[in-house]
Amino acid sequence: MADPTAPLLDAIDLALLQRLQTDASQTNQSLAEAVSVSPATCLRRVKRLTEAGLVERQVAVLSADRLGRLLGHGLTAIVEVSLERQSTEALDAFEVRAVADDAVQQCYRVSPGPDFCLVVTVADMPAYQALATRLFTTDANVRNVKAFFSIKRAKFESKLPLPLDLIE
Known about the structure:
- This protein is an alpha+beta fold and 168 residues long.
- It has helices spanning 11-22, 28-35, 39-51, 64-71, 88-100, 125-137, 164-167, and strands at residues 75-83, 104-109, 116-122, 142-149.
- The chain has two domains: 11-60, Orthogonal Bundle (Arc Repressor Mutant, subunit A); 64-149, 2-Layer Sandwich (Alpha-Beta Plaits).
- The protein has a four-stranded antiparallel sheet, covered by helices on one side.
- Helix 2 (28-35) crosses helix 3.
């Protein structure tokens, strides 16, 4: 069900969101030209979309491959975590600990199956062991952990799919 407090989005809003999630560093002038509105209108719309929480933040996406060549490739793992007790308090407590750890890049509470899926990035296997100790072995409520180690990243995308037929 749609959120009744959410702003209504038109084709210009969707075009702005699509362009921002592709390149948020572009100037307001170039963004306005790309969606055929005045710079003032563009600025006002982007501000409204941001205030509505549709734009969470603007970040730089680093090249893992190029950075890896400079710093050492590191280790990425997708980790399934099942808890012994699934009370709201127990799930919330684990989630708070997981999202607070810098090695955890993504944290999803999932169902069915495990309770959480984490994407973690660490320097090497000893660093993964330290993470496992911090998050899993010292928590008596963690029942099962299953880690899958990445040997190749075939795709990484941060863009959300938008209804492009409304944009063009």
